[in-house]
Task: structure prediction
Amino acid sequence: MELLILLVEKNAHLVTREEIVDRLWGSGVFLDTEHGTNTAIRKIRHVLRDDSEQPRFIQTVTGKGYRFIAATNATSRQRGNGNHKPATPLATQLDDPEDPPQQILAGTSPIPAMESTRSGRRIVLLLVALLATAAIVVGLTASGARSWWSAPTFKLAIHSLAVLPLENLSGDPAQEYFADGMTEELITVLAKNSGLRVISRTSAMHYKKADRPLPDIARELGVDGILEGSVGRSGGRVHVNVQLIHGPSDTHLWAESYDRDLSDVGALQNELARTITGQIGHRVASSYAPERRISPEAHDQYLLGKYYWYANDSEKSRQFFQKAVDLQPDYAAAWSGVADSYVASAIQGTARADSVMPQAEEAARKAASLDDSLAEAHKSLAAIYLFYRWNWKLADVESARAVELNPGLAEAHHLRGDLLQVLNRRDQALAEQKKAMELDPFSRRWTMALALLQARRFDAALKEARLRSEAHPDDAELHSFIASAYWHKGMEKESAQEWETWLRLSGEPDHALALRNAFERGGMKAVFEWELNDAKKKALTKYVPPSDLAILAAGLKRKEETLRYLEKAYEERDPCLVYLQSNGNFDFLQSDPHYQAIVRRMGLPLAQ
Result:
């Protein structure tokens, strides 16, 4: 309320953050005033149904403060009929005696015009304040919430939690990686609690700098708890502010500030996890105990590695992970990062498996030997056994161990789901992929669609992918799986249209046009023909995985050519060959002895 009155009193003039802090808390207070201000602004906007991108009431002046612009907007609308003089700047419109504001709150009955006197302006301000106060009281009463700085007197159950991206207090965009990395590490530690579902980092990052009501975010992520805060570092110190909120009611439950040495970051995160789980009444995971101190320099390189990992730049991420282990050779998580970056380059087809997988295996084993309780290390080992060694038993053991150590690690569930699908344990695979999506709904929106395609449930796969595509029309990958579902259902025209959409959304307009021309020329057969020839041309100058060529040849039902590429994929230990029996394109080969021999040599059970 104090903030709203301050904004209105300033008559569309800028209210700096310093003024807000001085008005609400006074100078020299040791509080997270940055976060408190953001929370108060968000609550005002929520009650007034204001949009931060197209504000009608409160305008954000980036890096400086805020303006209350409702009366200014009303004045501007009156002047918009062309019969008045040009609009004056925002900061002076309300001081213009010839054009007093006629309407303060959009969507309400106009406030009668009044003379531009001090008393008149006071009446305008009072009406705004009274109306806003009533709205806030009604809104908070309806939600059961109390003021943001108070704890509720009633118990609110929290069984699921989203950690929103910690705000970067440094003000330096180059330090965003540090705030993002601290967010992910806090998520990882919290996710070890088997009784608490914690949304994964990738999905939480969708709300970075999002000025959205917390009840909306809680509903979209399907959680009842929200943890938000800020982090900053200066010299050798790190300062963290966090607050726990009951999402559906926007009720503040707990808040705390921490100031620690950078070398104690791991211990700080464990302490935070213990405190938070204790606040919501969950059992504290025994694996919270810190293993070893990590040097700030090595930790910084590790966070940079994670930053580029999530930017899908496995090569650059590996450079920073390697720097981290060079600085601190016993850094288990960084060794796991090195392993994953090598595995990613092989799966993505940017490098031959035999040129990178041995290094990946060495790094994964190093990570597990340094910290056997690290879920990520066992996940890395499981990936080696699955995609390179084709040791299904050990892949099963290591993937199960990763899930056991950190039940909230979405990547572990996703990898285990892949393994179970490869082993033809399809119902179990679907269950694991469903769990992965619950933990990370925005990372791979296509996960369930792919799992259903692999189970040959094409109608269900199509329905799943189309539903998610309606909610996220710009997600290119979803269209690729819709195209696959249509293809296996024999709906060639629809398949070609979705394939074209996938390419266009992926930033390949020329490729999309070529595909359309090919389809018009000769249907899907011409499309596969064009794609196969294009892949062969690329293979003359760069590495193209033989499994990619096999899939395209299989689309043309060219038996001998498909088998030749599959044999080559076997010889190169192409990681994607593990999906041989999962891809419906190869179904026409199931009775072929050569095909069956490849499956047996890989040690896989033949699919029924």
About this structure: Residues 2-143 form one domain. The chain is about 55% helix and 10% strand. The mean pLDDT is 83. The beta strands are 15-16, 58-61, 65-68, 160-163, 167-168, 197-198, 225-234, 237-246, 251-261.
